[in-house]
Known about the structure:
This protein is α/β, with parallel strands linked by helices. 23% of the residues lie in helices and 28% in strands. α1 (41-47) links the parallel β3 (31-37) and β4 (55-59).
Amino acid sequence: MSFKVTxxxxxxxxxxxxxxxxxxxxxxxxxxxxxDCGEGAQMQLxxxxxxxxxxxHIFISHLHGDHYLGLMGLxxxxxxxxxxxxxxxxSHRGLDEIITTQLRxxxxxxxxxxxxxxxxxxxxxxxxxxxxxxxxxxxxxxxIRCSGFLFREKPKPRRIDKTRLPEGLLIQQIxxxxxxxxxxxxxxxxxxxxxxxxxxPRKSRSYAYCSDTAFQETIADQIRGIDMLYHEATxxxxxxxxxxxxxxxxxxxxxxxxxxxxVSKLLLGHFSAxxxxxxxxxxxxxxxxxxxxxxxxxxxxxxxx
Length: 305
């Protein structure tokens, strides 16, 4: 099953050099999540031939405009195309008021229900859960309330070894095998041992999105050992004083966090408009954390099972 992150926007603060403000599509086992929705996000979805109709949940990290100003355009497009499915929006306080005010003054009533979920400052909490995965907030340090998001697949069932499966097993018995149980008769006697008929579960994968934030070593505990980390790298290290003043991070700091947390892959994004050429950003991080990549528009990053 798929686990894929598609970059829609990688720019910080404003569009620059063909880079758009922050937005990503996270696809996990045929579930589609939009993470931040900067200006032009829906145009990027169209350009990449990604259907917005499949998006059921939108996570907004904070209310600086480069992370949500594309949202109203997307909502209006969904309405014009007669969406009927509920849309869940997760954000810190204020976004519900922003959206309802625009709807009120445009005399618009969406064709679908918008359900707001309020995030709380400094809180680490599971905000979405179904049978396949959880999404948990990551407390970030920025000039306003800000949260990152940690996507984790739940443990997966054992896999049936079809080459060793006896004929005539009932559906209920196969389900028991997937749960890790033995096949037993009515008296509880073991007919088939689970380990004889099954293979180990496929890997459960994980991804963390750490948007605008000052460098925080404390994040490492929450994201330790994950498969992939996106972390802002607004500045190069020669602008570390600017990063501290604006509560942003440098590429070197993002790489330091990836090293501390023992993650497998690092994606850098939210690049300042002062950098037309991003080579120095990448070259700063790689000596600290080798498996580092630039999260550029149109790039897809897949996690294998």
